[in-house]
Amino acid sequence: MKKLRVDVWSDIACPWCYVGKRRLEAALARFPRRDAVEVVWRAFELDPSAKRVLDTDVSYAGRLARKYGVPVAKAEAMIRQMTEVGAADGLDLRFDKVRPGNTFDAHRVLHLAAERGVQDAVKERLLRGYMTEGEAIGEPEVLARLAGEAGLDPDEVRAALASDAHAREVRADEDEARAIGITGVPFFAFGGRYGVSGAQPAEALLGVLQKAWDEAADAPEQALAEGAACGPDGCA
């Protein structure tokens, strides 16, 4: 049976990645060959140098203002706009609850989840935990609990996080992202042929899905379009 693989580079600490996931799901729901599409979540750290859990004394708006060099009031307006965009896609983005932190271990858990066949469910749970519930996804025990709720064995998660399990796979994802020029996420690669940067509308993603299906062939990824995304310097 013909198959189509969609690789998505994204980070947990990325509101546009959550929106992009919803839009990809909406596109897949309308794609006639949905059962033949495999979605694989790949690792991308927006801030690899971040501490496990960052100081919460500074608000999300304050961090955003610092990144963009704008007044806090403007950052707050940006957050309101992002919240409205998320709501339109069925997401409850709670920037007032976000607890920023390092996401490397979260990506290791996602590789474990891929081995166990529950990667999408774990990805969803971590995004919701971070973007809606204010979970500190840099903390191993939080990761074990959330991943357990999504189908992984919490004790297996704890054991993996206590070792260097899947660290190599995360680094390989990031090396590949650099090799093909990914600087912001989400980034969607369809069938090893077409690439789309940013949280494009579902209609656009559906169009690329159909094109990749019709023209399935081995070729380097190439960016077709760009949309809203998050990068090391912030989200825009």
TrEMBL record:
CDD domains to which the protein is assigned, alphabetical: DsbA_FrnE
InterPro entries referenced in this protein's UniProt entry, alphabetically: DSBA-like_thioredoxin_dom, Thioredoxin-like_sf
Single annotated GO MF: oxidoreductase activity
DSBA-like thioredoxin domain boundaries: 5-209
Transmembrane residue ranges: none
Name of the protein: DSBA oxidoreductase
A Pfam family hit: DSBA
Gene3D superfamilies: Glutaredoxin
